[in-house]
Structure formats: structure tokens, C-alpha cells
Design brief:
Strand content: 5-15%
Number of helices: 1
Strand order of the largest sheet: 1-2
Radius of gyration: 12 Å
Helix content: under 10%
Low-confidence stretches: none
Distance between the termini: 29 Å
């Protein structure tokens, strides 16, 4: 149930590694819709995640939603 506690060898990102070329990179936006960073594919994130977002500085940030359809 809690994907954050899945062993690294079976994590969704690791299983999707073979398909990473198919997962387009995209942008990370804040709640106002401003671009605050870029990412290597939505398969690397889960809602509620705080660590490993690749966005440093400022307030603590969490993944609030993932929109793979709107990803550029």
C-alpha cells in the first residue's frame, strides 16, 4: 500500500527503467503553476513524496498531484 516502503529492487521506477526512454521528461510546477524545476519522467514520483524531487531551496515541497497527460 505504501509505495515508499517497497524495496528498491522492486520499486516502480526500477521496474520502469526499461521503459524510461518512453517516459518523457517534464516540468515541476508549484501550486500557482509556476515552473520550479524539471524531472526525468512521472514514473519517478508518488503523491506525498518529499525526498528526491530535485527541487532545492525554499519551503518543504511535496508531490501533491501527478498529471502525466498534461506533461509536455
Amino acid at each position: 500500500m505504501e509505495v515508499c516502503f517497497v524495496p528498491a529492487a522492486t520499486s516502480p521506477a526500477r521496474r520502469a527503467a526499461g521503459h524510461a526512454r518512453d517516459a518523457p521528461a517534464g516540468i515541476v510546477v508549484d501550486e500557482a503553476g509556476r515552473e520550479i524545476g524539471r524531472h526525468g519522467g512521472v514514473h519517478r514520483f508518488t503523491v506525498g513524496q518529499r525526498r528526491g524531487l530535485g527541487v532545492a531551496g525554499g519551503p518543504r515541497r511535496y508531490v501533491k498531484a501527478i498529471d502525466a497527460v498534461a506533461a509536455p
